[in-house]
Structure formats: C-alpha cells, structure tokens
Write a structure and sequence with these properties.
Radius of gyration: 17 Å
Strand order of the largest sheet: 2-1-3-4
Distance between the termini: 28 Å
Length: 206
C-alpha cells in the first residue's frame, strides 16, 4: 500500500491524493505539515530533506515533489489511461503541470493567503489586487486552450489537468472578483463530475 505524507487540505497533497484515487490505488495518508508538524522530525527529513509535503513511499521507493509524484504514479500505474505513450502528447500535458507550479502558484498564493489563510487584520489588499491581475492574465492562457479542447491534457482528462485542477477549486470558491473565463469555468464543471475530485479536492479550504 502506498503511504502519502501530508495534510489533506494542502494543494500539493491534493494532487497526489486525487491522482491515486483516479488510479484506484489503495493508500494510507499520514498527517504531516502545518499544525501536524512531523516534517522537521529526523525520520521525515531522512525521507524528504526539503521538509515539505507531500512525500510518497511506494514499497522501498521514496519520492518527494508533488508533480514528480503524480508523473511517477501515472507512469507506473496508469500507462493505459493517464500516461500517454506519445512523447509529444505527454509533453503537452507536462507543460501545464509545470506552468501551474512555475507561473501561476506565486500570484495565486498572494490571493489565497490574503483571502483565506491569514486573519483579517494581517491581510494585504494590494497583494490581493496584484495577485488577481496576475492570475487572471495567466488563466486566460488556459481558457484559450480549453476553447479548443475539453481538457488541458487533450481530448480526455489526464495528468496535465491535476495541478491546475487543485488550484481551480479555491479559485472558483473564494469570495473574489474573477474575470469571465467561460472555457475555464466549463472545464471546472467537468472536473466536479469526477468522484475522486469531489472527494479529495473539493474539501474545506482551511
């Protein structure tokens, strides 16, 4: 059985839980990070020297970094469904995974922390305004792609949809002013039809 370390409401942990559930893999989730601690304990640092979540153990193999874990699970357990044998198609999905982490995560974090996580007296409205502008411009890129195909991964749902899908729940559920991105919204509606998405991503934000 897989072991997955991380708190359930972490966006990065959600990626792994959602992926494992879609692949119908049995797993044990172990609370770690945030109020749960654990990540600074020597045993955990021996597995994950970054001291971050998530961390995966599959038999004797240990892996950290959420996108790497998703790719590993898809490659090992989802070659007939989530891991495209065509390198070009696979790279097309890969790019959206890394884009979410390298481009969208930073402005999104400013919005999320100052809307959900921080107490009202500590929130920075200017950071929210800047973050919303950044997210809006970036998500418009995804919207344009989704005007041409139903999923970021192509004609069918796949691993390329997982990282942004985990951000999308908060994006559409936070009390913020969002730009009108109809194709992104339709994609989000399609994600909500997936039982594993509802179970592991659509949970309380705090």
């Amino acid at each position: 059985m897989l072991k997955i370390w991380g708190r359930a409401n972490s966006t990065n942990v959600k990626k792994v839980l959602w992926c494992a559930a879609e692949l119908e893999l049995p797993f044990e989730r172990i609370d770690a990070g945030g109020a749960y601690g654990v990540v600074d304990e020597p045993a955990y640092r021996a597995m994950n020297p970054n001291g971050l979540i998530p961390c995966l153990q599959d038999g004797d193999f240990v892996l950290w970094e959420s996108n790497a874990i998703v790719r590993y699970l898809c490659a090992k357990y989802g070659r007939d469904s989530l891991y495209d044998d065509d390198p070009a198609a696979r790279a097309d999905a890969d790019k959206w995974m890394d884009w979410t982490t390298s481009s969208l995560a930073s402005p999104f974090r400013d919005v999320f922390w100052n809307t959900v996580r921080l107490p009202a007296e500590q929130r920075d409205d200017k950071a929210v305004e800047k973050g919303l502008a950044g997210c809006g411009a970036l998500l418009a890129m995804a919207d344009r792609t989704l005007a041409e195909q139903p999923f970021l991964s192509g004609s069918a749902w796949g691993m390329g949809d997982i990282p942004l899908g985990c951000f999308a729940y908060a994006w559409f559920e936070m009390a913020i002013e969002r730009p009108d991105l109809p194709h992104l919204a339709a994609w989000y509606t399609r994600l909500q039809a997936r039982p594993a998405y509802r179970q592991h991503v659509m949970i309380a934000l705090t």
